[in-house]
Specification:
Blueprint lengths: L4 H15 L14 H11 L5 E5 L7 E6 L9 E6 L19 E2 L2 E3 L7 H16 L8 E6 L10 H7 L1 H4 L3 E4 L14 E8 L1 E2 L2 E6 L3 E2 L9 H14 L8 H9 L4 H6 L3 H9 L6 H6 L4 E9 L5 E2 L2 E10 L6 H11 L1 H4 L2 E6 L5 E2 L5 H13 L4 E7 L5 H5 L4 E4 L9 H7 L6 E3 H18 L2
Parallel strand pairs: 3-6, 3-7, 7-18, 8-17
Antiparallel strand pairs: 1-2, 2-6, 4-5, 5-19, 8-16, 9-14, 10-14, 10-15, 11-13, 12-14
Helix pairs in contact: 1-3, 1-16, 3-16, 13-16
């Protein structure tokens, strides 16, 4: 499809957002999202538009832009992007992760998929609405928030707790869905995110007995016990949860009866998953189980001292109903009583899973706009296995979805690998589709 002025504009804005290098390392002084707030504020400034910026700590800025609706009874819509990105290991990349080069119709760079592409598409759609003199019945909000990659403490969480009147809405769209699911027959199946897993990040302390490093025989080495615990956690399979969103997802795939039954029956599920198209198993496994990923560990005070303590940080993502005490039960089951007696839970997160209904006017609008842009496409409910800022709005009663539109050029396998991975990139056709999606959805839903 030939390049359009709109696609070029979205491409340019995405490149500038990537080059701002708003890398969130999880510390208050990282992120520097104020760079992208300055950029977007300048880009969206227009007569009559209401624009506010918030900076809970220096440099950690968010922007909220509103077009007030003419009818207080009409439903309101909030398009929310984030501007921060995760750290990167440049040696693993084919191209500079912050140069935002356009190569063969793709923009390369950290954040190209997560989620600066969507943030740029939302901003360009909003700008096009402003330029057209759009005067909606329902209030339309665009926000570009900080700190999504570190629990939203200075972004969406802060805004919902301290500036609720400025961001409240009936419906919200944020990241991310719309990639082509390589399952089922016929027209493209596009996941529209209606739910997300919770997180219960946990730190374990493993106890041992100190001693001299020259005498390891029969030593009570905390690091060795930690290594065994890490291995057990890495191979542990939590109970399968074939929840309602999963069943709606499978029903929407238009699979043959045998395949549909295999993916909704515990006895056959794992075999069916492993026989699926390449690249699908990791995400679909995580969508149906609470997962434990031990990702950080440390121990010891000196090389010649046998450590009496070791700590393990575990990224735990929960299916609804598995939160809290059930996670601790699973940890004990995975580790085993012999080792559990030497384990202490020293830190534990509390972020329960969340879900929105799928039979809503916004769902219908997103589906109709999608079918116009991708003829014959079918939206199907899905649960995102990571965390998004949608959870803060769901807890306030807001119907919240994750969505965008991916072209055929971005495979499901590549899409999943690029999140927080190497060689992140997005093609310009996906940028066009997402920008069209957000503009047309706003016109149809609040216009």
């Amino acid at each position: 499809m030939p390049m359009t002025e709109m696609t070029a504009e979205t491409t340019d804005l995405l490149q500038r957002l990537i080059r701002n290098s708003c890398v969130n390392e999880g510390t208050p002084e990282s992120g520097h999202e104020i760079r992208s707030v300055d950029l977007l504020e300048s880009y969206l400034s227009a007569p009559g538009v209401e624009m506010k910026r918030y900076e809970p700590v220096p440099g950690r800025a968010s922007l909220v832009v509103r077009i007030a609706g003419s009818d207080p009874q009409a439903p309101s819509l909030h398009l929310m992007g984030h501007t921060d990105v995760v750290p990167v290991t440049p040696s693993g990349w084919q191209h500079d992760p912050f140069a935002a080069e356009l190569i063969d119709g793709e923009v390369w760079g950290r954040g190209a998929v997560d989620m600066l592409d969507v943030t740029a598409s939302m901003a360009v759609a909003f700008r096009r609405l402003l330029d057209s003199g759009f005067r909606p019945k329902g209030t339309l909000i665009f926000s570009a928030v900080a700190d999504e990659e570190a629990l939203g403490t200075y972004g969406a969480k802060w805004l919902t707790e301290n500036a609720w009147d400025d961001v409240k809405t009936d419906y919200l769209v944020t990241e991310f869905g719309g990639m082509r699911i390589p399952l089922g027959n016929g027209a493209p199946k596009l996941p529209l995110i209606a739910a997300e897993k919770g997180s219960q990040w946990t730190r374990l302390r493993v106890r041992g007995t100190p001693g001299h490093g020259s005498m390891p025989y029969q030593a009570d080495n905390a690091l060795l016990k930690a290594a065994e615990i890490i291995t057990r956690l890495g191979t542990y399979k939590a109970p399968l949860r074939l929840h309602s969103v999963w069943r709606q997802f499978v029903d929407g795939l238009d699979l043959p009866a045998a395949a549909r039954i295999a993916l909704t029956t515990a006895a056959t599920f794992d075999m069916a998953l492993d026989r699926g198209p390449e690249g699908t198993a990791p995400m679909l496994y995580s969508a149906t189980r609470t997962t434990f990923s031990p990702n950080m560990a440390n121990s010891g005070v000196k090389l010649n001292v046998i450590p009496d303590s070791a700590e393990i940080d575990i990224d735990i993502r929960t299916i609804a109903g598995d939160d809290g005490p059930k996670v601790r039960e699973m940890l004990r089951e995975a580790i085993g009583d012999a080792l559990w007696k030497d384990v202490e839970i020293v830190a534990e997160g509390d972020n329960p899973a969340s879900e929105s209904p799928t039979r809503t006017p916004l769902w219908d609008t997103l589906t109709k706009v999608t079918q116009k842009l991708v003829p014959g496409a079918k939206t199907i409910p899905f649960l995102i296995v990571g965390a998004t800022d949608a959870r803060y709005f769901r807890r306030k009663g807001v119907t919240s979805y994750g969505y965008g539109l991916m072209s055929e050029r971005i495979s499901f396998k590549d899409f999943a690998k690029m999140f927080h991975g190497n060689n992140e990139r997005i093609d310009q056709e996906s940028l066009r589709l997402s920008t069209e999606l957000f503009e047309q959805t706003a016109r149809a839903f609040v216009g």
